[in-house]
Design goal:
Blueprint: E1 38-43, E2 46-55, E3 58-66, H1 69-90, H2 98-104, E4 112-113, H3 116-131, H4 141-153, H5 159-166, E5 174-177, E6 182-185, H6 195-212, E7 218-222, E8 225-228, E9 238-242, E10 254-258, E11 261-267, E12 272-275, E13 278-281, E14 295-302, H7 305-318, H8 320-328, E15 334-340, E16 346-349
Antiparallel strand pairs: 1-2, 2-3, 3-7, 4-6, 5-6, 7-8, 8-11, 9-10, 11-14, 12-13, 14-15, 15-16
Helix pairs in contact: 1-6, 6-7, 7-8
Length: 361
């Protein structure tokens, strides 16, 4: 599972007309700006606007085409408001979020009625855990806390600390009742962490709100993940840059052309820590309790951002062979996996990924 970025850290913003996922733009801590729109160019009756706002502890960026500044402002404000609303449900940082309140009931024997939004993500998460044999697990929160502490203190956690946290982790300890729409956490001290799928849902919902306001040519990004709508005027798709793996011999930068899909990246390219001479990722394997040491960068394209997020994180944990099998079993999904398990860089793509490259036929 992927640890959320530290919302206290920030870095300069990247710039582009077509919002590429560059080394800077994929970094979780980009400098968050206010909602003020920026009109950059005209394309017939439609104008190009960009908005950025801090949400979920990271910058969310909206790029859209609209007929006027007023239309763009209204739609962007509504989209950001929807993201803020979802954060009050999904956040594991906020003490009064619905997710945090649910975690507090762990081990009490209490079945908690949950909102439709939280129910949706809980069922998606449990289905993904089942498919991946526990490689994806939203109960990983106690282990996330251990590794966050390790990153702050720059000290490897002890096996005892890992074991203690792992005793409170396990997707099988979440009991969902589909008739009553309740969730029960069976082990005391459990802490749910929806991680990137919460961000994916927020991105998908922000794009939906823009469409409800009559704006279909839009793209919404959060820390390198994207919900992508219709392409800019007179273009086949949004031009997306794939950042290369930061290792000698890695394939060069390539560009994708995407429309009406979800896009997600996972890996240790930007978030990792050196402990005891070894590089540890911000992604934790909930089955072992240890942070991943595989130097990797995974890109997934899927019908929506929630699906893309869950797959990209899972692939980082299970590796290329099992990961590509999961992708193959997911309708309209494709993936690119870059790894450096030893001295050589390995590149693997699922069937269908190459059709998304810029200029592909």
């Amino acid at each position: 599972m992927q640890l959320p970025s530290d919302p206290s850290k920030s870095a300069p913003q990247g710039q582009s007309d077509f919002a590429p996922v560059s080394r800077r733009a994929a970094l979780a801590g980009l400098l968050a700006l206010g909602i003020g729109g920026c009109r950059s160019k005209h394309t017939g009756a439609l104008q190009h606007f960009q908005f950025e706002q801090a949400q979920m502890g990271l910058p969310f960026r909206i790029v859209l085409y609209a007929e006027s500044q007023a239309h763009a402002d209204t739609a962007a404000r509504a989209a950001f408001a929807r993201v803020a609303e979802l954060n009050q449900i999904f956040s594991d940082y906020e003490d009064d979020s619905e997710l945090t309140k649910l975690s507090r009931t762990s081990g009490s024997g209490q079945a908690v009625k949950v909102s439709d939004e939280l129910w949706r993500l809980l069922t998606v998460a449990q289905a993904t855990s089942r498919r991946s044999d526990g490689a994806f697990d939203i109960t990983v929160g106690p282990l996330v806390q251990v590794w966050r502490r390790a990153r702050r203190q720059r000290e490897l956690p002890t096996p005892e600390a890992i074991a203690e946290a792992k005793a409170r982790v396990g997707w099988q300890h979440v009991a969902l009742d589909p008739r009553a729409r309740t969730a029960k956490l069976l082990v005391q001290g459990m802490r749910l962490d929806l991680g990137s799928i919460a961000k994916g849902r927020a991105l998908d919902q922000a794009l939906r709100v823009l469409r409800e306001h009559g704006i279909t040519r839009a793209l919404v990004t959060g820390s390198g993940d994207m919900a992508i709508g219709d392409p800019p005027p007179n273009r086949a798709g949004w031009r997306i840059e794939l950042a290369p793996l930061d290792a000698p011999g890695a394939p060069p930068t390539r560009f994708l052309s995407l429309r009406n899909c979800g896009f997600a990246t996972s890996g240790d390219l930007f978030q990792h820590v050196e402990l005891g001479g070894k590089r540890y990722s911000h992604i934790v394997d909930p089955r072992t309790g240890w942070a991943m040491t595989d130097h990797s960068l995974v890109v997934v394209i899927a019908p929506d951002c929630v699906t893309a997020n869950s797959l990209s994180t899972t692939i980082c944990v299970v590796g290329p062979e099992r990961g590509l099998a999961l992708v193959k079993a997911t309708p309209s999904a494709s993936a690119r996996i870059m790894r450096k398990p030893g001295e050589r860089v390995e590149a693997t793509e699922s069937w269908g990924f190459s059709q998304h490259y810029e200029g592909a036929k």
